[in-house]
Specification:
Strand order of the largest sheet: 2-5-7-8
Order of helices and strands: HEHHEEEEHHEHHEEHH
Helix content: 55-70%
Shape: elongated
Radius of gyration: 39 Å
Strand content: 5-15%
CATH topology of the largest domain: Outer membrane efflux proteins (OEP)
Number of strands: 8
Largest sheet: 4 strands, antiparallel
CATH architecture of the largest domain: Up-down Bundle
Number of helices: 9
Number of domains: 2
CATH superfamily of the largest domain: Outer membrane efflux proteins (OEP)
Length: 428
């Protein structure tokens, strides 16, 4: 009987000891993100990092193109053991040295220094450098374009999350007020029906707002390339200011500043250089080369040869005209693509300006209406009224406030999209 009670006590004691040995569980520190912090963390975005690597690759190609102006210089040494029955030559990799049977030594040693430099090749080296430099500028433009896209995406995620927080908080407070009103016992049967229906709607909208908030948090974490279980909160206010947008000036700015247009301009330059490279295939190549060689069958090596050679090579390419035709067609394609992109940029700027203008007119109207009704509600709160009347009035105030918050958010994002379409920030 005693053992029956003793076993559970021992198990509880051991469990308590285990919990104390493990110590208190540490909770992860909650991070706080502002819009400035979000923009700063964008350097971790995979798309931006990939664009940065493209810039590094382009820089390396420019360096390689510059090094082509230097002569090829090198050293070579070889040692050969042979047994010859008739004269033969080594492979071209070892200078095609001639070896004869019956020599006093069946070994041969060789060392050489050499240089090789093209003197003239139809500006192919220069055009290769220009092509690499244009590619480098194109990579920089693409990086700037990716950075602007990533910044806009981050701003949208941040302000959408702020709006979701405000909506969830507003619906939660509204649900509490509806629950208090539903608890009153001085309502008639029809008032009770209306009260319960309002309570059900408030609960549904509160649950939907919390679900939307959770989804917005996941989108925000994914945008910043953070772990999806990171504890955090965003800090900011849904506030905005009027923005002055001159459409004609904005179009001119976009034509000059949009990275996509600059990238396409460099693409056209690269196509033109490609045509020049194709044309350069018909020009001869003049090369200067030199060697200094020591060769002997015994050490020390005393026999030496040297030579300086200038040579010319005239190419006869069967595919010259077909490649030239291809490059010219690619150049024309680039020009057409650039013209199409210019039209698209003009359309984007005007659409963004129209959206910004509409929300800039709509947001103050909603704010004025909400503040007016809120002031009337505050004045009437001190006067007696039926519970359902108060509830209907509060529903109206809530809807106006949510409409105002949505308008403020859309105006902030419309301004960000307009700045993205233009390629520069608007003055404060």
């Amino acid at each position: 009987m005693i053992n029956r009670f003793l076993a559970p006590c021992l198990c509880l004691a051991l469990a308590g000891t285990t919990v104390r040995a493990q110590g208190p569980v540490r909770q992860a520190t909650e991070r706080v993100y502002t819009i400035e912090e979000v923009v700063r963390l964008l350097r971790n975005d995979p798309r931006l990092q990939s664009a940065e690597q493209d810039v590094i690759i382009a820089d390396a190609r420019v360096t390689e193109a510059k090094l082509r102006f230097l002569p090829e210089v090198g050293l070579q040494a070889s040692a050969t053991k042979y047994d010859a029955r008739y004269p033969f030559a080594l492979s071209p990799e070892f200078r095609s040295l001639l070896l004869f049977p019956g020599a006093s030594s069946e070994s041969i040693y060789s060392g050489r220094a050499y240089f090789n430099m093209p003197i003239y090749e139809g500006q192919r080296t220069m055009n290769t450098l220009r092509l690499a430099q244009a590619s480098q500028k194109q990579a920089l433009s693409k990086r700037d374009s990716v950075k602007m896209d990533v910044t806009l995406h981050a701003k949208e995620a941040f302000y959408r999350l702020l709006l979701a927080q405000e909506r969830a908080s507003a619906f939660d407070l509204h649900l509490k007020n509806v629950e208090l009103a539903a608890e009153k016992s001085d309502m008639g049967p029809w008032d009770r029906v209306e009260s319960e229906a309002s309570l059900g709607v408030a609960r549904s909208r509160s649950a939907e707002a919390k679900h939307a908030l959770d989804a917005a948090r996941l989108v925000f974490l994914n945008t910043l390339s953070l772990e999806l279980d990171t504890p955090f909160r965003v800090q900011g206010a849904l506030e905005t200011r009027p923005a002055k947008a001159d459409v004609e000036k904005a179009v001119i700015w976009a034509m000059e500043l949009r990275p996509e247009l600059q990238s396409q301009t460099y693409r056209v330059q690269m196509d033109a250089i490609g045509v020049n490279l194709a044309l350069g295939r018909r020009y001869p190549t003049i090369t200067l080369a030199g060697d200094y060689e020591l060769t002997a069958q015994r050490f020390p090596i005393k026999n030496n040869n040297w030579d300086v050679t200038i040579g010319i090579r005239v190419p006869f390419a069967y595919d010259y005209w077909s490649q030239l035709k291809q490059k010219r067609a690619e150049q024309r394609q680039g020009e057409l693509a650039r013209a199409e992109l210019q039209d698209l940029v003009r359309l984007e700027v005007r659409q963004a300006a129209e959206t910004l203008r509409w929300w800039q007119e709509e947001w103050p109207r909603r704010e004025s209406q909400w503040l007016k009704v809120q002031a009337l509600y505050d004045d009437a709160s001190s006067k007696p009224a039926p519970a359902l009347t108060r509830l209907r009035a509060r529903d109206g105030v809530l809807e106006l406030r949510l409409a105002h918050l949505a308008a403020v958010t859309e105006h902030i994002l419309a301004r960000a999209r307009f700045e993205r379409a233009v390629g520069r920030e608007l003055p404060q």
